[in-house]
């Protein structure tokens, strides 16, 4: 009995130690992101689900070392138009099939849990807005910026109810403003207040997810709401909300394609193949806003005409990170450090891919 029990006990102790270590790591990173996600959202994010092209849910497991050499793992969000469309069209699978490689997909509700999955080694490549990679870098996640999407400063704004007496950003002083903490809209709010001569600490900050913020905004429990498309377009259509200011001249509102450093180092050819296919779908989206709106409508639960408004005021492309783009992203990082959303200063240029996109 003893000879059988002793090894099992050692294994159990080792497993428990590793489990506690991983739990502490995830808790630390989750606190750093602090984006106002609900507990349910965070739990679902920690257990991402993948689906095949038919839409049937499947359990996604990290591939073994034996299969990782022939499998490219993509993390996506439904609101990330290009990757969602790339998955649905099956074109990436076709591009890799000739070399005997395969593709798996894992869906996430937001950028922060997507990047935690990248940190855990569950995915190789993904797309988020401008803020999540800043938090990820501050948290020590080994990721690389590989390209950017221009999106559009017109695709995010600070809204007020249609009958609100507030006419300028300066009038937000002392008022309740809803936004997702650590999001691109958070950055817009900071810069808009700064331009108007109002301290960030002079407003009543109400940090909520888009769905919760929409509810309190409609009930007029907040005075303003900083939000991005397509939620922006949906709120305008449903409530007649008035745009106080958009991000033009204040915030770039870009999106970024990101990859695990290990993937970039070990599989540069696979990375370029992924980016080639992203480029093709991006060009389709840029030239077909109506088709994109119809395609996204069932997945997002937003009417196609509303989505088309959002599509027509955003830009699509996949571009290399220039010094100008890196400088602007550094400004976002510096702003978040200044208002203590990240615990230390970071240098964005230290994690920018040095490879080149195919033309």
Automatic annotation (TrEMBL):
<dbReference type="InterPro" id="IPR015168">
    <property type="entry name" value="SsuA/THI5"/>
</dbReference>
<dbReference type="InterPro" id="IPR010067">
    <property type="entry name" value="ABC_SsuA_sub-bd"/>
</dbReference>
<dbReference type="InterPro" id="IPR001638">
    <property type="entry name" value="Solute-binding_3/MltF_N"/>
</dbReference>
<feature type="compositionally biased region" description="Low complexity">
    <location>
        <begin position="56"/>
        <end position="68"/>
    </location>
</feature>
<keyword id="KW-0732">Signal</keyword>
<keyword id="KW-0813">Transport</keyword>
<dbReference type="Pfam" id="PF09084">
    <property type="entry name" value="NMT1"/>
</dbReference>
<feature type="domain" description="Solute-binding protein family 3/N-terminal">
    <location>
        <begin position="71"/>
        <end position="288"/>
    </location>
</feature>
<protein>
    <submittedName>
        <fullName>Sulfonate ABC transporter substrate-binding protein</fullName>
    </submittedName>
</protein>
<feature type="region of interest" description="Disordered">
    <location>
        <begin position="49"/>
        <end position="70"/>
    </location>
</feature>
<feature type="signal peptide">
    <location>
        <begin position="1"/>
        <end position="45"/>
    </location>
</feature>
<comment type="similarity">
    <text>Belongs to the bacterial solute-binding protein SsuA/TauA family.</text>
</comment>
């Amino acid at each position: 009995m003893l000879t059988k029990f002793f090894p099992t006990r050692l294994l159990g102790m080792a497993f428990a130690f590793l489990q506690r270590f991983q739990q502490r790591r995830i808790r630390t990173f989750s606190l750093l992101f602090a984006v106002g996600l609900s507990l349910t959202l965070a739990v679902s994010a920690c257990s991402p689900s993948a689906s095949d092209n038919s839409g049937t849910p499947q359990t996604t497991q990290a591939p073994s070392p034996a299969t990782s050499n022939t499998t490219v793992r993509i993390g996506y969000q439904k609101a990330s138009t290009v990757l969602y469309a790339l998955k649905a069209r099956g074109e990436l699978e076709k591009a890799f099939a000739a070399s005997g490689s395969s593709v798996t997909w894992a869906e996430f509700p937001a950028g922060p849990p997507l990047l935690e999955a990248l940190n855990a080694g569950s995915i190789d490549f993904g797309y988020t807005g401008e803020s999540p990679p800043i938090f990820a870098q501050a948290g020590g996640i080994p990721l690389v910026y590989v390209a950017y999407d221009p999106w559009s400063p017109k695709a995010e704004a600070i809204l007020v109810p249609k009958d609100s007496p507030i006419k300028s950003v300066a009038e937000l002083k002392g008022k309740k403003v809803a936004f997702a903490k650590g999001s691109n809209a958070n950055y817009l709010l900071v810069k808009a207040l700064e331009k108007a001569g109002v301290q960030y600490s002079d407003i009543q900050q109400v940090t909520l997810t888009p769905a919760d913020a929409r509810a309190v905004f409609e009930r007029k429990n907040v005075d303003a709401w900083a939000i991005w498309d397509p939620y922006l377009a949906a709120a305008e259509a449903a409530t007649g909300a008035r745009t106080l200011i958009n991000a033009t001249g204040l915030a770039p509102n870009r999106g970024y394609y990101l990859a695990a450093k290990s993937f970039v180092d070990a599989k540069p050819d696979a990375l370029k193949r992924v980016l080639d296919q992203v480029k093709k779908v991006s060009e389709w989206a840029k030239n077909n806003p109506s088709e994109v709106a119809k395609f996204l409508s069932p997945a997002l639960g937003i009417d196609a005409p509303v989505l088309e408004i959002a599509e027509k005021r955003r830009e699509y492309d996949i571009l290399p990170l220039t010094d100008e783009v890196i400088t602007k992203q550094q400004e976002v990082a510096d702003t978040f450090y200044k208002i203590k959303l990240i615990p230390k200063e970071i240098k964005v240029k230290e994690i920018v891919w040095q490879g080149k996109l195919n033309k």
